[in-house]
Amino acid sequence: MSLLELDSVSKRYPRPAGERAVLCDVSLTLACGEVAVVWGLKGSGRSTLLRIAAGIEHPDAGTVRFDGRDLAQAAEELLGGGIGYPERTTRAAEGQGVLEQVMVGLLARGVSAKHARAVAVTALQRVEAEHTAAQRLAALDEGESVRVAIARTLALSPSLLVIDEPTRGVDLLERDEILTLLRSLANEGIAILASTGESTGLAGADRALTLNEGELHATPPAELATVLPLRRPAARRAAG
User: Fold this and answer.
1) Distant-in-sequence, close-in-space partners of 108: CB < 8 Å, separation ≥ 6
2) Looking at the DSSP assignment, which residues form a beta bridge with residue 192?
3) What is the per-residue pLDDT across 210-225, written as a single tens digit (0 to 9) for each?
4) Are β-strands 69-70 and 61-66 bridged in parallel, bridged antiparallel, or unpaired?
5) Contacts of 43 by beta carbon, 8 Å cutoff, 6+ apart
6) pLDDT for res 218
């Protein structure tokens, strides 16, 4: 059984000139340990697709299931539990410390401060961001913000990671490292569903998907076909 299933999902948004169909009868399955990346132009609906896959938004039609459970009934329970949706820092949280931010989800679950701190440190080490633990969120660069967001999610032990444009704004030299990190998490059994607006963001994926005019296709556009390194890396970086 697939971990994530989107079955004939459709979504429309109202506009002054009439409704706009963002997703049209989209179906997708994702297994444990698999990386699927959705490529699309700005405004193509890729972020909407990921929010629906994570249970943040509900489709107008169709069904989303996680581990066999309908997200329409269980999204509140599963988001932040089995489903992780890393989000970068909001302006309201910028003054907070990194370690405390990674701990917050655990504390909300009633985990002791001592245990939450230990788990948070381990999560930061896993994403190679332990050096940021004592920093304020506002002091992080884009690459560090992505790593901390992933660490905050990993602290809650998800089996699915849904991450929107993980390399957006990240320094060119660090983009490959972020993608390698996601690949390594998948190699440990976590399913990864990501989006990208750049062909380089498809590196390391098991499946490259294209979202265009509301329709999801299993093959990239022809102009991207020659630059997609769709293979697992020969070796992954050690954690910590």
Assistant:
1) none
2) 35, 161
3) 998 899 988 654 444 4
4) antiparallel
5) none
6) 81
Mutual orientation of helices 98-108 and 142-154 as an angle, nearest 10°?
Answer: 20
Residue found by looking up tokens 């979202």 in the block:
211
Domains, in order of start, for the chain: 1-82+160-192+201-240 (3.40.50.300), 86-157 (no CATH)
Q: 142-154 vs 172-187: helix axis angle to the nearest 10?
A: 10
**What are the φ and ψ backbone dihedral angles of 112, each rounded to 5 degrees?**
-65, 150
Q: Is 109 helix (H, G, I), strand (E, B) or coil?
A: coil
Location of structure tokens 């790593």: 147
Order of strands, sheet of 35-39, starting from the edge strand that comes earlier in the sequence: 83-84, 160-163, 191-196, 35-39, 207-212, 215-217
Q: What is the CA radius of gyration of the chain?
A: 18
Question: Virtual CA dihedral for 118, 123, 124, 127, nearest 10 degrees?
Answer: 160
Can you give the pTM of this predicted structure?
0.86
Phi first, then psi, for residue 148 (nearest 5°) are: -65, -40
CA nearest to 195, candidates 173, 216, 171: 216
Question: pLDDT by residue (tens digit) across 25-77?
Answer: 999 999 999 999 999 888 889 999 999 999 999 999 999 999 999 988 876 77
Sheet holding 61-66, edge to edge: 20-30, 4-13, 61-66, 69-70
Q: Which of 50, 149, 58 is nearest to 98 (CA)?
A: 149
One DSSP character per residue, 179-226 reads HHHHHHHHHTT-EEEEEESSGGGGTT-SEEEEEETTEEESS--GGGGG
